[in-house]
Design goal:
The chain contains 11 helices and no strands. The protein is mostly helical. It is globular and about 65 Å long.
Length: 338
C-alpha cells in the first residue's frame, strides 16, 4: 500500500505541471482518435465500399491529429497548443458532419469525449495565461538570443515552425475536398484493391511532405531542398485552384439541373464547404511560401550555426569527462610520485 501511495503522490506531482498535464490530455486524445477508426468501420461495414473510403479518410485524419499532438507536446508553446486546438475542432466538425450527413461516422460518444478534451486544454491554456502572464505568440526569448541580427532571422524561422504545424490543417482540408470531389465524380467505387489507391488522400500526403522539407531546407540552409519545396508547393496551389474551379462548376450545374429537395440542399452545402476549405488552404499555402522565401533570403547569415550550437549546448553542459578509470589513474600516479 505504501508503494501504491508513493506512486500516486509522484503522479499528482507530475500532473501539477501544466505542461505535463497537457501532454497527458494529448496522449488520451490520440488514443481516442485511433479507437474511433474501429467504430467508423463497424458502423459502415454493411456497405464495404463506403467502409473502405470512410475508414481511409478517418485514419489519415486521426494520424494528423496525433502528429499535431506530438508537435505540441514537443514544443509546449502556446501558439502550437492553439494550432492543436484548431486541428481538433476541425476534426470534431468533420466527425459531426459525417455523423449527421451519412450516418457512417463514429458515434456521438467520441464527439463528446473529444470535445471534453478540448475544453480541458482550453481551460488549462487560460489558467496558464493568467498565471504566467505570457503573450500567446511569444516568438523569441530575448534573454536567450543576444545578437540582434540572429534574433530577427530566428523570428522568421520560428514562424516557419508554426507554418509547418499549420500545414496539418491544410492537409485535413485538402483531404476533405479531395474525397468529396472523388465521391461526386465516381461514387464509392472500389471494385479491386488497386482502386483503393485512387481514394488515398494524395493532397494530404503532399502537404505532409511539404511540411517536412520546408523545415529541413531552412535548418540546413539547402538551396536544393528549398527548390523541391517550391515545386511541391506550386503543385499544391494548382490543385487548390483546380478543386475550386471544379467545385464552382458543380454548384452552377446543380443549380441548373437539380430540383429543390432535401438531398439537393445537402449537396449544395457540401460544395460550399469545399469552396471555403479550398480558399483557406490556398491562402495558408501562399503565406507559407512567402515566409519560406524570406527564410531563404536569410541563408548564410548565421542561423544554421546558431541552431547547431543550441542543439549541442545541453550535451556540453552535461558532459563530464571524469570517470572511474580517470580517478584510478590519478590515484596511482599520486602513489608513484616520490
Amino acid at each position: 500500500m505504501k508503494r501504491i501511495s508513493q506512486h500516486f503522490d509522484e503522479l499528482i506531482l507530475y500532473l501539477s505541471s501544466i505542461e505535463n498535464l497537457i501532454c497527458v490530455i494529448i496522449f488520451a486524445n490520440s488514443i481516442v482518435a485511433l479507437i474511433e477508426n474501429i467504430f467508423v468501420w463497424i458502423r459502415s461495414r454493411d456497405f464495404i465500399e463506403i467502409a473502405v473510403v470512410n475508414s481511409l479518410e478517418y485514419f489519415f485524419n486521426s494520424v494528423l491529429v496525433i502528429i499535431s499532438g506530438f508537435i505540441t507536446a514537443t514544443f509546449k508553446t502556446l501558439n502550437h497548443i492553439l494550432i492543436y486546438f484548431i486541428v481538433n475542432v476541425a476534426f470534431i466538425l468533420r466527425t459531426y458532419y459525417g455523423y449527421f450527413r451519412t450516418k457512417f461516422s463514429s458515434s456521438m460518444a467520441f464527439i463528446v469525449l473529444k470535445a471534453i478534451f478540448l475544453l480541458l486544454i482550453l481551460l488549462i491554456v487560460i489558467i496558464w495565461l493568467c498565471r504566467e502572464r505570457k503573450n500567446l505568440f511569444v516568438i523569441v526569448n530575448s534573454n536567450r538570443i543576444m545578437n540582434t541580427e540572429i534574433k530577427e532571422i530566428y523570428k522568421w524561422y520560428h514562424l516557419q515552425l508554426t507554418s509547418c504545424h499549420i500545414q496539418i490543417l491544410v492537409a485535413m482540408f485538402s483531404e476533405f475536398t479531395y474525397i468529396s470531389l472523388l465521391v461526386t465524380k465516381y461514387g464509392y467505387n472500389v471494385e479491386n484493391p488497386f482502386e483503393i489507391l485512387k481514394y488515398l488522400p494524395w493532397p494530404n500526403i503532399l502537404s505532409c511532405i511539404i511540411a517536412l522539407i520546408m523545415i529541413k531546407g531552412v535548418r540546413e540552409e539547402s538551396n536544393r531542398i528549398m527548390i523541391i519545396f517550391y515545386i511541391a508547393n506550386c503543385i499544391l496551389v494548382i490543385y487548390f485552384i483546380c478543386a475550386l474551379t471544379v467545385t464552382i462548376e458543380s454548384i452552377l450545374l446543380t443549380l441548373k439541373e437539380y430540383k429543390e429537395n432535401y438531398d439537393y440542399y445537402k449537396y449544395i452545402i457540401e460544395l460550399e464547404i469545399d469552396i471555403v476549405l479550398c480558399v483557406i488552404s490556398y491562402f495558408i499555402t501562399v503565406i507559407t511560401m512567402i515566409n519560406s522565401i524570406i527564410c531563404h533570403k536569410n541563408f548564410g547569415k548565421g542561423l544554421k550555426e546558431y541552431l547547431l550550437k543550441e542543439e549541442l549546448k545541453p550535451f556540453r553542459e552535461s558532459y563530464d569527462y571524469k570517470d572511474d578509470l580517470d580517478n584510478l589513474y590519478h590515484e596511482r600516479n599520486k602513489r608513484n610520485d616520490p
